UniProtKB/TrEMBL annotation:
Primary role: Plays a role in transport between endoplasmic reticulum and Golgi.
Transport is among the record's keywords: yes
Protein family per UniProt: Belongs to the ERGIC family.
Alphabetical GO biological process terms: endoplasmic reticulum to Golgi vesicle-mediated transport; retrograde vesicle-mediated transport, Golgi to endoplasmic reticulum
Keyword Transmembrane (UniProt): yes
Transmembrane segments: 157-176, 384-405
Protein name: Endoplasmic reticulum-Golgi intermediate compartment protein
Record domain Endoplasmic reticulum vesicle transporter C-terminal: where: 244-406
Membrane topology annotation: Multi-pass membrane protein
Domain Endoplasmic reticulum vesicle transporter N-terminal residue range list: 140-232
Length: 425
């Protein structure tokens, strides 16, 4: 608001569309405050007529001094897109220039002046809150924290180009590495103290496959005993004897169960009706496993530690002791299904054993004990949010470091150029 000889004036923002463009203007409106006052010469009440132009409802209200100054300091519609030369000519009254503040706003627009100028736009966008004025139109772009820099204000350099290419290649390499890790299933192992297979009834399934090339099948038998009082001689359930070397040898295959207590099972001639004079216990163990068979590519455990053990060159009358430490093992796939198996470590010794009658009665002993530690393997895939976080960290960190490096190199090169120019002068 301004007071001019008893008349109070305020600026009104005008806006219209012409040829698909929004045009802005500012007009003064005067109100008499005292009787007898004469309105300013250049701002008669007729200047309030807007014709087809309407005040901008989002920008009405009292204007501050800067806005009114942008409007020309006098009444009428003052448009701010005129050239600097025309404004100077109007101020000096030369030629056919248009006096500041004269005429109607429609005539100003029809005269060809582009009302998109910076001063008129500033006047239309700078309302104050005093004198009951209006509010500034809400612009969602004010939340943009990534302000754009015109391309003409940037300067490309060869060093920056090299750093940018290396940066992109490095990001691509790390991205592919993380993508491979995200796609690949990861197997995580953990240890804990517990009996994993509580539904087994305290039993462990055993699979044995052994060949004795110099012992007849009718002499071969399997005996089982443990600390719970079990003592079984000549176990034949789920077992099979296959003759070898035209009946001179035997291959024994059997599946049986043992209790989850220390004990042993052994291959011997104890179940034979007549004991041979010199039984030959040289052998090859093809398979000895406990629990379910796990065939997982990324799990390299001792599930068949004695597989391939060859004792063909040992003393034929010697007994063999295999001392096993059985470790419960659980494998859980991605669907949550669990399979229970057992790994084991083995130590062995070879000796000649005599009975109470002085006879040599060799046997192949498997003495076992259970470990209280359970090994669990779990299939896992990297979560998507962790993959996205890692990728963002790679991209952001690489660009930040590359930007710091480029800035340091550019600053150093500019400083060196200034030093060289100083030396030349």
């Amino acid at each position: 608001m301004r007071n001019n000889g008893g008349w109070r004036g305020r600026g009104i923002c005008l806006r219209r569309e012409r040829d698909g463009k929004i045009q802005w203007g500012v007009q003064k409106e005067w109100t008499r405050e005292s009787s007898g006052a004469t309105p300013p010469r250049a701002l008669t009440p007729s200047a309030r007529a807007h014709g087809p132009l309407l005040p901008d409802p989002g920008a009405r209200g009292s204007f501050n001094g800067a806005a009114e100054g942008a409007a020309g300091g006098a009444g009428g519609a003052q448009w701010a897109s005129r050239s600097v030369t025309s404004r100077r000519r109007e101020a000096s009254g030369e030629g056919g220039g248009r006096p500041a503040g004269a005429g109607r706003p429609e005539e100003v627009l029809a005269a060809g002046w582009d009302p998109r100028g910076a001063a008129a736009h500033l006047a239309c966008s700078a309302p104050t809150l005093g004198d009951g004025g209006g509010t500034m139109p809400f612009d969602f772009r004010r939340f943009d924290i990534y302000r754009k820099v015109p391309k003409d204000l940037t300067q490309p350099t060869y060093t920056g180009a090299i750093i940018s290419i290396c940066c992109c290649l490095f990001i691509l390499f790390l991205f592919l590495s993380e993508l491979t890790g995200f796609i690949t299933t990861e197997i995580v192992n953990e240890l804990y103290v517990d009996d994993p297979d509580k539904d087994s009834g305290g039993k462990i399934d055993v699979s044995l496959n052994i060949s004795l090339p110099n012992l007849h099948c009718e002499l071969v038998g399997l005996d089982i005993q443990d600390e719970m009082g079990r003592h079984e001689v000549g176990h034949i359930d789920n077992s099979m004897k296959i003759p070898l070397n035209n009946g001179a040898g035997c291959r024994f295959e059997g599946q049986f169960s043992i209790n989850k207590v220390p004990g042993n099972f052994h291959v011997s001639t104890h179940s034979a009706t007549a004991q041979p004079q010199n039984p030959d216990m040289t052998h090859i163990i093809h398979k000895l496993s406990f629990g379910d068979t796990l065939q997982v590519q990324n799990v390299h455990g001792a599930f068949n530690a004695l597989g391939g053990a060859d004792r063909l060159t040992s003393n034929p009358l010697a007994s063999h002791d295999y001392i096993l430490k059985i470790v419960p093992t659980v494998y859980e796939d991605k669907s949550g299904k669990q399979r229970y198996s057992y790994q084991y470590t083995v130590a062995n010794k070879e000796y000649v054993a005599y009975s109470h009658t002085g006879r040599i009665i060799p046997a192949i002993w498997f003495r076992y004990d259970l470990s209280p530690i359970t090994v669990k393997y779990t299939e896992r895939r990297q979560p998507l949010y962790r993959f996205i976080t890692t990728i963002c960290a790679i991209i952001g960190g690489t660009f930040t470091v590359a930007g710091i490096l480029d800035s340091c190199i550019f600053t150093a090169s500019e400083a060196w150029k200034k030093i060289q120019l100083g030396k030349m002068h």
